[in-house]
Amino acid sequence: MKKRNLFGLFLIGCIAAIALTFTACSEDDDDIQSGTFTYEISFTKFSGDGTVATTVTETFMTAMSEATDSSFKQINSSSFTLTGSRTVCDAEVKLACAAAEKLLETLSLNADFTLIITNTTTATRIYENSFASDGSNQFI
Questions:
Q1: Model's pTM, two decimal places?
Q2: Phi-psi category of 35—alpha, beta or left, where left has phi over 0 and alpha has psi -120 to 50?
């Protein structure tokens, strides 16, 4: 009888140890790893007319739709969603930003601005870069 009680206690101890191990290694529930993520395009330090902001936003949206798979969905003129893993979605945004930079540098933009892309689902700034119209027409 005593062997049975010790064996039972041993099994309960093993189960508790395994449960604690899996609980300790689980992902943080607050850190969203996959789903639909919303991104917002915004500007700071903007000097120029409104048509430049529209051109920049439209150029970025075009680059975004070409650089991503079918999970891209434009919500309005300055926001969009991507569905998938957070890492992949954020990486696709960064690739689209690089493509948009190259397109924008070929245009004659008469403005200085800082372009910011934020993953509003996770409150993470994904991209930030400034554009100077000092004759170089390049992001700095």
A1: 0.69
A2: left
